[in-house]
Structure formats: C-alpha cells, structure tokens
Amino acid sequence: MDRLISLEPSNVVPIRIEQGDKCYGELTLRNVMYTMPVAFRLQPMNKARYTVRPQSGIISPLKTVTLEITYHLPPNATLPESYPHCEDSFLLHSVVVPGAVVKDPSSTLDSVPSDWFTTKKKQVFIDSGIKIMFVGSPVLAQLVANGYMDEIREVLEKSEPAWRAADSVDKDGQTLLHLAIAHARPDLVQLLLEFEPDVEAQSQSGSSPLEAASASGEALIIELLLAHRASTERSESSTWGPLHLAAGAGHMEVLRLLLLKGANVNALTRDGNTALHLAVEERRRDCARLLLASGARADIRNTGDGDTPLHIAAGLGDDNMVKLLLQKGANKDIRNRHGKVAYDVAAEYGHTRLFDALRLGDSLCVAARKGELRTIHRLLENGAAINGRDQHGWTALHRASFKGRIDTVRTLIEKGVDLDARDEDGYTALHCAVESGHVDVIEFLVKKGTDIEARTNKGVTAMQIAESLQYSGITRILSHSGAAKEGVSQAVAAATLPFGNGFETGKLKKKANHRPRSLRTSIDRSMPLAVL
Questions:
Q1: Where residue 119 sits, what CATH number does that domain have?
Q2: Strand, helix or coil at 197?
Q3: Number of alpha helices (DSSP H) and beta strands (DSSP E) in the chain
Q4: Whether residue 54 has a cis bond before it, omega within 30° of 0
Q5: CATH code of the domain in which 413 resides
Q6: Is 233 within 8 Å of 266 (Cβ atoms)?
Q7: Are 165 and 159 in contact (CB under 8 A)?
Q8: CB hemisphere CA count around 72 (13 angstroms)
Q9: pTM (2 d.p.)
Q10: Cα angle, residue 323 at apex, residues 513 and 247 outer, rounded to 5°
C-alpha cells in the first residue's frame, strides 16, 4: 500500500460472475493527502482479460473515486480458469500533482498525461498488491459441489449482500442448500445457514430444502433446517411433503424429528394420500407403527379411489401390515369408491391368506357364537383358519365356549382347533366356559384334555374364577379333574371387577356382553348360568 492512495474496503476486488451478465467489480481509491491532489493510473497486466474505467484520473484531497473493473469471460466458458482466487495482477501508479485542479470534485475523467507516471523528476508510487476474487452464483455452486468450506465462507463474506449470495442457484436451478443436501454435507448446510438463506426456497423441481433432506434421509440436516424454522408442511409446488417423503422412503429418524416438530400426521399429498397410505404402500411397517402411535387415522380414505390404508395393505397381500392396522382399530367394513371393502380387494388379487383376518375369522366367530354349524363348515372349506381370531382376539372356540354351544365346540375340536389358544389377556376357552357357567362345555373340554391349570396373564385359573363366582358344581368338576383349589386369590381380585356376590372378568364382559346385573345377582350361586 503506497502513501498517497488507500484502497477501500481492502485490496481484494470481488468480481461477480453471472451467466449472461457483465462480470465486473468495483474498487474505491481514496486520496490520503490533506492538501494535494493525486493522479492515479490502474493497469491490468492482462489487458485482453480486463477493462478498467476510468483507467486514470485525479483525486482531490481526502476524496474518493470508484473504478469499475470488468472481466471478459472467455466464450463458452462458465467459470474463470482459477477461482475464487486469481493470479492476475494490476499495477496502481500514483503521483502528487501540485496545482492540478479538478473542475468537478466528483469527476476524475481529467486527461492525465501518461508521462506523469514515467518522468524521473517526480516520485511515482507503484502498488502491485491488488488481488482479484471471483464471486457469484456459478462460483459458489461449484465450490459447494466441491465441498470447499473455507473458500465458500470467503466468497460469501466478500459478496454484497451476503444473504443474497447465499440464495444463489446453479445453472439447473438448484439452490446452494439443495446442492449441499444432495452431497449429504450437514457441515456445508450449517455454514450456509450462517448467512441466512431462504430456507423455503424451492429448487427447479419445486421441492424445499426440508423436502429434499427428508427424501434422502439426512436426519442431521433435518435438525439444522428445523432449528432455522423450516416449515414441515408440503410446499405448494411439491407433490409430497417432508412427512410423506420420509414415510415412503422408510427414514424413521427423520419421521420422528418431523413429528416431534409438529408435522401434521394426516396431511395429504397433492394426489390425496396420507403418510400412512405411503408407508403401507412401501411396506414400511416401522414407519406405519410410528405414524399410528402419533395419531395417524387408520381409517382415512385417500381422495383418489377412496382407499384406506387397509385397502392398500390388502391389495399388496401384506399380512403383517394388515395385522398391524387391525390391531390399531382399522375398520375392515369401509368401502372405497368402487364399493369394495378390504376383503374384496384381497380376493381380487388372490391373497387367500388374508381372507381369515379380513372377513372369514370374524364370520367364523359369529357363526360359532350363534351355533351355526353349516356356516362353520362352509367357512372352513372356503379357507377360514380354524384358529383365526376376530378383532377382539378370540377364536371360534372362545366364542362357542362362552355361549355354551356344545355341538359347535365338539365340531371345532374335531376339526383340530387349538384347545388352549389364549386371547391377548391369556384367557382360554375353559376360562370362558367357566365364567359363563356352561357345565357341559366344561366337561367336554376337560375330557378332551384342555389344560385345567392354565392361567391368564394375571395368574388366574379356571378354578379360581369358579370359586369367585361361587359355582360349586363347576368347582367340583374341576376338582375331580385334578384342578388345584387355591381359594379366591388376590390375583383374581386384581384381574376382575366386583359384580354381585362374586367377581366378573372385566375383559370378558367387554368382549361377550354378560347377562344384566339383575339377572346375575338373582340366581343361586351354586347354579351355573347354563342351567338358566
């Protein structure tokens, strides 16, 4: 730096490169002399590559002048040979010119003779410290693609204003954030976010940065974007929102972050599907389970064919997904726009193994409850699983035993039903028969070898249920068959609800609709209900 002129704000000139635009930068010179005007001349060493305007002039004391340095990008080139820094050099000549007068203080276009900077009689200062740095969208896009952290920061800091530079896009319309996400670089995303880019800026394809990160499963990038208040909702021009993209691709951690941030779990894609529809369609069972636990509606219909997630799972023949949806309360009787329930869809695609879960299991249990033997035979011939369960977890044997359908019980056992199948609370058919007081069913089950010591999940045996309900006749049958008499234990009290003089199992009451209290409390406790 010479003693006559200072460079503002520094000796590095940022030249902005943009496709289709003039590539130029500005350099401000200040005369540091208090009383003397100073003449200057700025010359590029490569005159074919740069143009300086004005190239020379006179600066009044303590005044400034701004020069425009234009860079001539070679034809068909998108970037300079080297970037962001450049080895091209400039020479700045300056000399004091006593008595020189600038008619217009703001003008520097006075004719400055070239010999002012060459005569040996004057002290000419020469500065060769001026440097060029290329900035602009193509430069930043390439630096992000290359992952050059330090250079990216330098270019952004030299750009005016920096936040506009952070919103630069490449030739394909991708923002810098999208490029960093595409290269799975959370460190680059964090650096760019320091310069406050638009976190909702869309790529040429219409996706937001959060949608792009959700699609690629970049959980750390998702956290960074959410911390900068990126919207979790689908952008207007996108087909799928962040939640849909994560669910469809099976990105569990991303899905969890979005849900924790309040993403609408039942939001629709542009074509009318929820994230649960997409998770089911892509067989993402873990994602489906998380969505259901977060409030996703299992029975919501899409806006196309009116399919529920259960329709989709049935069409795919996805046993596990069907089971999950039914466990979470999906209604198997909802019809789509074509009038089909999930069972019809499964039948259309030949997924016979789903017949039991979607219809035949319930139908078999209903027939068993009613004692309709012909229907039972027909359902079994059509593929119903003999040990299939209804939505309450009961097999046909549970139902028949509770209702005292001895002929049905006999038929089911002949067909190979599991005598000791348990429901979700550990109740066997024997527990059901004892609870409802059906002696003939109890005797038949015992005769066929049912486990009379089987315990529910809370440790209750059939004998304890009989004792709690004061069924003396049933107690004798079980005792003669080898059942241990333990008395009414605390386990029974914990597993049952007070009812009359004894206890009634709460789960059985819910599942099978016990007789009214007035009837149960008016009978002789030594008499089983089957007698009534």
A1: 2.60.40.10
A2: coil
A3: 26, 13
A4: yes
A5: 1.25.40.20
A6: no
A7: yes
A8: 9
A9: 0.70
A10: 130
